[in-house]
Amino acid sequence: MYKLYTRPGSGGFVVEAALALANAQFDQIDVPKKDPPDPAFLDISPLNQVPVLTLPNGQSITESAAICILLAERHPEAGLAPAAGSADRADFLRWMAFMSSALYPAILRLYYAHRYTTDADGKKAVKQAAIAEMDRGFAVLDVALQGRDWLVGDGLSLADIYLVMLIAWHPDIDTARTAWPNIERLWAKLREHPLMKTLNTSHEMWPG
Ligand SMILES: N[C@@H](CCC(=O)N[C@@H](CS)C(=O)NCC(=O)O)C(=O)O
Question: How far apart are CA 199 and CA 13, in angstroms?
Fold first, then answer.
């Protein structure tokens, strides 16, 4: 059985979605923010971050994109991602890496601005730059969605759920919904998806 270490409103959202779509049994462990961190949790998550997925063999994996890609690989019948070796799979890997390495870190700079400056008055500038960088990333994804129903391939994949999770963290939801109409189109569809609705009741990612 899998074990998912998560917290409401966190990157655990997409992993929970993946496990549910794969019909995989898992224990969910809530990791409250603690200072100092719990040493046992640091053993499996050295940066003290969620999500962490512990596999049935006891191995623990951090990094939301890696977890998603791994789950897609372990549960091919669930169609969480385009098939390995297909052209759409290349797009899937590209956008998962883009979202986790360009966009997610910009979001962290906004919400953990104190970590990104040693200047006591510097947080405001870090936040402004973080939002500008997020906006640049969302604009790229909006173009990628132009004329398409889904970010990759011709069906829902974890890339779509990952994108919707990130856009929900935008500090100005009204602007986000008008600035990137293709992302909003995808998001509107996922807001009606029964599983997203269920997950949103515990994660409160967007107004229900
Ligand atoms: N690169 C990691 C980032 C995970 C991450 O930043 N998680 C946040 C919650 S969304 C967290 O646990 N933050 C606590 C902290 O950084 O102290 C991933 O993609 O999984």
Answer: 7
State which amino acid sits at residue 105.
P
Which residues, at least 6 apart from 122, have a Cβ–Cβ distance to it below 8 Å? none
Contact between 25 and 56 under an 8 Å Cβ cutoff? The reply is: no
CA 49/CA 66 separation, integer angstroms: 14
**What's the 11 CA to ligand 1 centre distance in angstroms?**
7
Q: Whole-angstrom Cα distance, residue 86 to residue 72? A: 14
**C-alpha of residue 12 to centroid of ligand 1, in Å:** 9
The protein residue whose alpha carbon is closest to atom 11 in ligand 1 is 49
CB atoms within 10 A of CB 191: 17
Computed over its alpha carbons, how large is the radius of gyration of the chain? 17
Report which of 56, 48, 93, 98 is spatially closest to residue 74, judged by C-alpha positions: 56
Query: pLDDT per residue over 36-84, tens digit each?
Result: 999 999 999 999 999 999 999 999 999 999 999 999 999 999 999 999 9
Classified as helix, coil or strand, 166 is: helix
Task: Give the CA dihedral 104, 176, 79, 193, nearest 10 degrees.
Answer: 130
**List of E strands, 55-177:** 60-62
Report yes or no on whether pTM surpasses 0.85. yes
| pLDDT digits 0-9 by tens, 1-49 | 999 999 999 999 999 999 999 999 999 999 999 889 999 999 999 999 9
